[in-house]
Amino acid sequence: MWYGRRVSTLFGVNVPYLGGEYGHDLAENPRFPTWPCRFDPMLAYGPLIEARRLGFRAVRMWLCENGEGIRLDDGGAIVGVSERLVESVKVVQEAAHLHGLYLYWNLLDGNAWPREGDPVTRSILADADQAARFAEHVVAPLAAVFDPERTLGIDVVNEPESSTAACIGDDAVTPVAWASIGRALRLSGRAARAERELLVTAGSAMAFLPELWRAEAELTAVDLHVYHRHGGLPSREDLARYVEDDALMDPALPLIAGELGIPKDPGPDEPRSLCNYLHNAERLGYAAAFLWQLEGDLVDKSRDERPFTWLGGQVQAVLAQLHGDA
User: Are the C-beta atoms of residues 14 and 226 closer than 8 Å to each other?
Assistant: First the structure.
């Protein structure tokens, strides 16, 4: 298992979906039969090679966002996982192995229900039977395929709080209760750990950590998403006080920063905060930290040669300073 072998922070970057094709980059999407899946091994290798050249050692990638790769019967019940998704995972793992990268797999996106109207994601989070089917027919088969030597862990639901009443302001969108989300996380985590010794998380903003922690999700690591103007991160002591549970003081509970990003309205100097995150994650003992995101912020995707941006060069220099290029 990766965590037991490392004594310093594992730095990574988010490559959530290839080519910006949310919900159909790695497999077909049952909700949108006409959407193309243009997955190509060469295109999949490219971002991982870029991540490695920048000095990262891990990549966070999404698999089933917006219902992608989930097989349904005519009544909408989950019956399996797409073979195309499984084969795409194998290709990405091959690239990771060749370039010395770890993979942090995210399965569902909590934003898909309120933002995209995705009934598949909502049904998994809200319905006990559908959550059990997802765990059995999607999570377990994927976990069996994940390479234990290259897998950091599974982030079952990206930002689950997005599907709760605290984040939904549209009366036409029905929120999901935290207790139901906790059940879905618990079932998926058990299914995954039955196949592999894996960390199981649900990346969320610190403001919602108490609700997530009390949802009996049986998570084995804490994953925070932070968009701080100056690259600030909470310490383990900060988190324990905020959640009011000293269990978070246990060093055996890994702290992961799954998304470390620039605010949506950054000032002229705030992009530099990405570099501050790197120093703070190392200083505070985070097991892993992932910047948001490769394309656009660190790599210029508008040019065919995809050069590193100015910010990408700064991040590359900091990573070399912290850990060298070994």
Answer: no
Beta bridge partners of 225: 205, 259
Unique residue bearing structure tokens 């999901």: 176
Q: How far is the C-alpha of 95 from the C-alpha of 49, rounded, in Å?
A: 8
Angle at 101 between CA 2 and CA 253, to 5 degrees: 30
Is the CB of residue 22 less than 8 Å from the CB of residue 63?
no
Question: Token digits for 46?
Answer: 């490219």
**Cα dihedral 40/46/51/54 (nearest 10):** 180
Q: How many CA atoms lie within 13 A of 227 on its CB side?
A: 11
State how far the Cα of 301 lies from the Cα of 86, in Å rounded to an integer.
27
Distance from C-alpha of 122 to C-alpha of 118, rounded to nearest angstrom: 7
Yes or no: say if 219 and 189 are a contact pair by the CB < 8 Å rule: yes
Pairing of strands 78-81, 70-72: antiparallel
3-state SS class at 300: coil
Structure tokens at 271: 């992009």
**In terms of Cα–Cα distance, which of 169, 200, 173, 174 is closest to 185?**
200
- Do residues 157 and 214 make contact, with C-beta atoms less than 8 angstroms apart? no
What is the rounded CA–CA span in Å between residue 228 and residue 157?
22
Q: CA-CA distance, 152 to 200, in Å (whole number)?
A: 9
Q: What is the pLDDT of residues 207-255, one digit of tens each?
A: 999 999 999 999 999 999 999 999 999 999 999 999 999 999 999 999 9
pTM: 0.96
CA 278 to CA 311: how far, in whole Å?
13
